[in-house]
Amino acid sequence: MGDALPAIDLGAGRTATAVSAGLLHTCALLDGGQVKCWGGNGSGRLGIGSSDTRGDQAGEMGDALPTVALGTGRTAIAITAAGVHTCALLDDGRVKCWGSGFAGRLGSGGTANLGDGPGEMGDALAPVDLGTGRTATALTAGRDHTCALLDDGSVKCWGENEFGQLGLGDTADRGDQAGEMGDALPAVALGTGRTALAVSAGSHHTCALLDTLAVKCWGANGGGQLGLGDTARRGDGPGEMGDALPAVDLGGGAIATMVTAGGNPSSITTAHTCAALLDRTLRCWGSNSSGQIGAGDEVARGDGPGEMGDALPATSPAATGAVGGVQGADGTPVDGALVALLDPTDFRLRGGGVAGEPDGRFAFPATAGSHLAYAIDPTGAHRPGFIGGPSPIAVPEGGIADVRGTLEPTFGRVAGVVTDADSGAPVARAYVVALDAATSEPVRGAPAGTDGSFTLSGLPAGSYRLASLDLDGGHAPRLLADPVTGAVTVVPVTAGETSPVAPALPAQASPGAGSAITGRVADPAGVGVSGALVVALRAADLSFARAARSDGDGAYSLAVDLGDHLLLFVDPVGHHRAEWYDDLPVSGLAAAVPVAAPALVSPVLDPTVGSASGRVTDLAGGPVADAWVVAVRPSGIAGGAVTGADGTYAIDGLPPDNYRAAVVSPVDGVLAYWPDSPTFEGSDLFVVVAGDDSPVDAVLALP
């Protein structure tokens, strides 16, 4: 181990942001949102279109290991590897699963394996139907079942249900037959008015952390893994879920912040469950044949009366602290918000923590006394402000203060449905771009769903024109206009509000596809621009031919007619300047360089934003982990980051400007301004330039 243990080769320049291990395989979520899997590949669990094992022979890893094809323009934000299947949560909130289809664990409406043969992945792999309008925010998989935490806080599970692990009050599998998914799949009954903040699937049981910070578990219980003081299953018969399902007794005053369910894939009696508590201790219950619950013995807990609650061993007594959540004005959690407790007399820092993804919750120790709570959204999408007030918050000695609050948004959105101008039918493959009304520069872009609906988020308050197009070329593109006069409509956007629109596109003859234009959209450093919009016009008459979106690595492919075309490239998040090929601004259509299909065209888009990065250390030069670095420009907070274990951080997406930096160690109660000033006024400026990184190292005088 140690230095002798080689690092996994993920490919040139690639790093991992998450990892998940299944029974015989492992998957990594890469820094660009791609997924790579290696190990055993029975049933296609690696998602590479074969059943060949990867990683057991020289030359199979690194750049030779293909990424999982998730679909055109799609990337992943989370992965879960199970026994013999794998699932990914995509950037659009949809879920895709591959591998063994036994018992419906893929949620495909059948039992066929997927990913073990050519043509089964990418766009051919259908997303799991979670129900009308529903998306997922988190994902977990057991041996033979899968669960998703949905955007409304509900939980849906599918796959094997022999032990009630789906929580549906029966033992019927779900997802292995047509008509069992989508709106037909019930959500797990968690109790009246209850929603979930997190869900974890063990081998044959499932647990959820509720919005009350209580834990409920259901499914197999042979080892007491449900924590209910018996070995009876729950969720496999009527009347066992909802209000009838007791919460796990973690002891007086104990508050859970996380739950994880484990288990032995070959046994229902050797599973256990653990919960992390607010005081940063763990309590575990269930089978203990190998000391897995950490109680210093091999005695199971939770399978008999009197073993839970205060009788359940914990590593230390409950602490003093704060718990709560931060949300936007629309009720959406503000993930990653920085929450600080301040002394109400002099605003000195008394403690702090980070609101965790994906539910905006936080929990951290704090000194007893009176405090003010202040929250910052490091993305700049919400205005910083006090929460839980305006009165000071009392943190009791040996107790917990519940602090919840709302931050006002800084951005607005535009939403609607793109339809056919004649029939009113939705345009399934539409794409919408918001253009600055004054400059015509693209600001944000977003694809529509199969029902034609779209939401353009992250728009600064202002005025916009809206361009809509059909990626497949079956409709002519149009600027949003008055349906009577034809005058182009200017759409006002207000922070925190949704501006409704109804774009309509006239049908046109479907374009031919006798040739292709392919390539890769990248920045000057060679990093691919994910999700870039590529638009092709026929050079002869400037008519719209077709459009496409780049994948997670910036690669794209456009099926077009033979002949000359003009190409427009747009970054949907505005971090790169849109251009007509070759290197011309959006106003440069007249000078655009024609491209004769077939062709390979790989443009380089100039960045419009920069970054700041560095390392936070103490006076001895040691790294300061979990410190906050907040970049402040004259107009307010523009971004922030939390340091890693080595003290390093990076803040991306900063507009060019002059900045100051606040550096905070919430654990130690230390605040300083870069480079070493106790006051904002005494700090130095640093400059962010588009396309460049500004080094900002800081030293904190920790107690």
What does it look like?
By secondary structure, the chain is mainly beta. Among the domains are: 328-407, Immunoglobulin-like; 415-505, Immunoglobulin-like (Sandwich); 515-600, Immunoglobulin-like (Sandwich), CATH 2.60.40.10; 610-700, Immunoglobulins (Immunoglobulin-like, Sandwich). Strands 17, 18, 20, 21 and 22 form a 5-stranded antiparallel beta sheet that branches. A hairpin with a 5-residue loop joins β26 and β27 (442-447). The chain starts with 15 loop residues before the first strand and ends with a strand.
- What percentage of the residues does DSSP assign to strands (E)? 35-45%
* Helicity, as a percent range: under 10%
- By CATH, the architecture of the domain at 415-505 is named Sandwich
Shape: globular
What's the CATH class of the domain at 415-505, please? Mainly Beta
Helices and strands: which structural class?
A: mainly beta
Under CATH, the topology of the domain at 415-505 is which? Immunoglobulin-like
User: Could you give the distance between the termini?
Assistant: 34 Å
Unreliable sequence segments: none
Rounded mean pLDDT score: 91
Number of separate strands: 50
Radius of gyration: 27 Å
Biggest beta sheet summary = 5 strands, antiparallel
- CATH superfamily caption of the domain at 415-505: Carboxypeptidase-like, regulatory domain
